[in-house]
Amino acid sequence: MNTEGRAAWSAGASGAPGAGMFDMSRLEVPPAGWRAAIVPAVLAWLGSVAFIGQFRPNEVAGLLARAAGLGLIFWTCAAVSAAGIVAMAVGGRRPHAVLWAAVTGYLVGHAVFAWLPVHAAIDFRIPFKSSADGWMFVKHRLTYGVCVVGCTAVFVLLCARALGSGPRFHFGVGSWWAQGRDFTHRSRVQSYAAAMVGFGVFAAVLWVVGQAGVGFGPLRTGLLWAVLPGVVAAAVTNALVEEMIYRGLLQPAFVHAAGIARGLWIQGLMFGMLHWGMSVGVVAALPTSLLIGIGSVYWGKAVLDTKGLSWVIVAHAMVDVAIMSAYFVPRG
């Protein structure tokens, strides 16, 4: 992120002049070669979809498998990412080398997770038949998170130290009283504490919509209440792991290489498309995945505004509770 971009963002975060997620590009001059950051984002998406598809088949992974074996696709993405580190470093594009290192570590983390001898022992089933299934999901996601976060962090930090160029991370709690705008510079300036109230209303509406989508089966049968502790634990764990990976580690690398606005949009849309790749449908799931991507841009902006991960973890967990309460519970 260039000096002008940092200064403009700091001014924007305090409400003067301020910027929303759709006009962040006016904060800075885009760095040269920012479009090259799209390539590692595609590799991260392709590799993770191919990896997940080997264990939990879905239609998108099935389409990929028609072109080549999923294992071959995954390892090709990892190899190209590793080569990208060298190519960017030799070419003197240090921020891009760090980005490629982040993606390489991200993919290697998936491989380490698959190799762990406890991997099969902590597999989980959906829907949850009891709270014990929810806790099994928690163990699975925590183990996955340790592998991916650990490998990504090691690759990023080693590359950044070797090249003397590293991103700025925000792993702390942050301040919920930081000011921000939602969409454009005309949006109302408000604190993230106030924004969380509105987000809570959104999550409640999403919970009702999710229940309606399954005919209110979990509620009518009472099965939801039987597994609710496991659902909440699973939602919180999933939010913590995903925010550590995507907003905690990958987002700073994308912002470092592509600038604030473009880095946030690239990581956000990549995160949305990951949900498309892991979903059951293809065409029907695409609009929802794109909406998740746009929401992820807002979450990414919230991390920069609040300078921490706590706000997005809570927001993400509320969304996951709403979704899991409908689709991770037997319908009767």
Describe the fold and architecture:
The protein contains 12 helices and 2 strands, in the order H-H-H-H-H-H-E-E-H-H-H-H-H-H. The chain has 332 residues and is an all-alpha fold. It has helices at 3-13, 38-55, 59-67, 70-90, 94-115, 131-163, 192-213, 217-220, 223-258, 260-277, 286-306, 310-327; strands spanning 179-180, 190-191. The model is unreliable at 10-17 (pLDDT under 50). The chain has one domain (34-180, 187-327).
- The Cα radius of gyration reads 20 Å
N-to-C SSE series? Answer: HHHHHHEEHHHHHH
| Count of helix runs | 12
Strand order across the biggest sheet?
1-2
Mean pLDDT across every amino acid position = 89
Coarse structural class: mainly alpha
The low-confidence runs, each spanning 5 or more residues with pLDDT under 50, are: 10-17
Q: How many separate domains make up the residues? A: 1
As a percent range, the share of strand residues is under 5%
Report the biggest beta sheet as strand number plus sense, adding barrel if it closes: 2 strands, antiparallel
Tell me the helix content: over 70%
User: Distance between termini?
Assistant: 52 Å
> How many individual β-strands?
2
* Shape verdict: globular
Secondary structure topology:
Elements: H1 3-13, H2 38-55, H3 59-67, H4 70-90, H5 94-115, H6 131-163, E1 179-180, E2 190-191, H7 192-213, H8 217-220, H9 223-258, H10 260-277, H11 286-306, H12 310-327
Antiparallel strand pairs: 1-2
Helix pairs in contact: 2-3, 2-4, 2-5, 2-10, 4-5, 5-6, 5-9, 6-9, 7-12, 9-10, 9-12, 10-11
